[in-house]
Specification:
Layout (H helix, E strand, L loop, with lengths): L2 E10 L6 H24 L3 E6 L12 E5 L8 H11 L2 E8 L8 H13 L3 E4 L7 E5 L16 H7 L4 E4 L4 H4 L5 H9 L4 H4 L8 H11 L5 E6 L3 H10 L3 E6 L16 H21 L2 E5 H8 L5 H8 L9 H12 L4 E4 L3 H20 L7
Helix pairs in contact: 1-3, 6-14, 8-14, 9-14, 10-11, 10-13
């Protein structure tokens, strides 16, 4: 079996057995199904779901293939990716994780198809420096790059080692938002586009801080503190599309793809070490009316390596369910300040904030009785 037209590969697996991890796994399956459906409608010839969870993807359409990981075989992204390209003879492959760009629709996916069909020797990605979705042609270019531990570095490898030309999708909420953590799931559950895939999990999500943030984004006298791996594009979006003042502390951009031996350092991490979690959040409360915090930067600064379930429970503002003591105390302190505090990862302070801003203005228009076109 070979495919000459574009084919979407979706990787889903290794998500853990904790309660929060299971919630995220279910949401990512729903996201993957939605993206696959949009991709097929946009002109992809087929889709391949590579997974270690056979039961998660039942009743797939005929042009969606299930490729199950080998039991007992350690997962290696690069090896698995090359195996799929070779096995199915993919000439125009695209690859993403099951939670990647869940708001991507037919228009963006159709653009990828058009770019791949236009000519060989190019790749398309949503983010050149830390990709969530990458498509390329010819497919065998993947055999001309070195080891791939994760998909984030694929665009740079395809350009620098395989000589392909980059095509970067326009930076929009849809191309920058990822479903990585419960914070991202909370953002999706507040919206309308993806409500069907997240409604079952919404009851367990800490939506009050998110709802508390929304009107502040539309309030001229409010100030919002945003800290973590905040990119210039997100900052520009906030400056352009919010009425409030925004205090941005951007640190450790590129942390996920940092070279071996990199030692993360954070201004907020130093403050936390000096004053402790309780005074840390009280100080942040003096700087704004709400805080949106990428906690992974602080964790890296402190040298913490909590389990993914601990991180997710912290995002859910459930300190009693966080086993790592420092992260548990940090989560408790976030709950003690009388202001909205949102905890999450990189997606929260990038596409997540962009999505929240879009939603804030829709809610503002509803409150004022305005139509969407007003």
């Amino acid at each position: 079996m070979t495919f000459a037209r574009p084919v979407l590969m979706v990787f889903h697996g290794g998500l853990g057995d904790g309660a929060a991890e299971r919630t995220m796994a279910a949401a990512r399956v729903a996201a993957a199904r939605r993206t696959v459906e949009a991709a097929l409608a946009a002109g992809f010839e087929a889709a391949i779901v590579a997974t270690d969870d056979v039961g998660a993807f039942d009743a797939l359409p005929a042009n969606v293939l299930l490729d199950v990981d080998r039991p007992g075989h350690p997962f290696a992204f690069g090896e698995r990716l090359r195996g799929l390209v070779a096995r199915y003879g993919l000439q125009r492959p695209a690859v993403m994780g099951s939670g990647a760009v869940p708001l991507l629709g037919e228009p963006e996916l159709r653009l990828i198809v058009e770019q791949l069909d236009a000519r060989d020797g190019r790749f398309v990605t949503n983010n050149f420096f830390s990709a969530d979705l990458t498509a390329w042609t010819p497919g065998d270019a993947i055999f001309g790059v070195g080891e791939l531990e994760r998909d984030n570095v694929l665009p740079r490898r395809l350009r620098d080692e395989a000589g392909l030309a980059p095509v970067v999708l326009p930076r929009t909420t849809a191309t920058q938002f990822d479903l990585d953590t419960p914070a991202d799931l909370a953002v999706l559950s507040l919206g309308e586009v993806f409500a069907g895939g997240t409604s079952a999990a919404a009851a367990a999500l800490p939506l009050a801080p998110y709802r508390g943030l929304l009107p502040l984004l539309c309030e001229k006298t409010a100030e919002v503190v945003v800290a973590g791996r905040v990119g210039s594009m997100t900052w520009a979006h906030l400056e352009r599309d919010t009425a409030c003042r925004v205090r941005v502390i951007s640190e450790e951009r590129g942390l996920a793809t940092a070279p071996p031996g990199h030692r993360p350092r954070s201004v907020l991490g130093f403050l936390l070490e000096e004053v402790g979690p309780e005074r840390f959040f009280r100080r942040l409360a003096e700087m704004g009316d709400a805080v949106v915090l990428d906690t992974r930067v602080i964790e890296a600064h402190l040298g913490l390596r909590p389990l993914r379930e601990d991180r997710f429970q912290s995002d859910l503002l459930q300190p009693a369910r966080v086993a790592e003591p420092t992260l548990r105390r940090l989560t408790e302190a976030a709950l003690d300040v009388p202001m909205p505090v949102l905890l999450g990862g990189h997606s929260l302070v990038s596409g997540g904030l962009m999505a929240l801003t879009d939603l804030a203005w829709r809610e503002n228009d509803r409150r004022l009785g305005l139509s969407p076109q007003s």
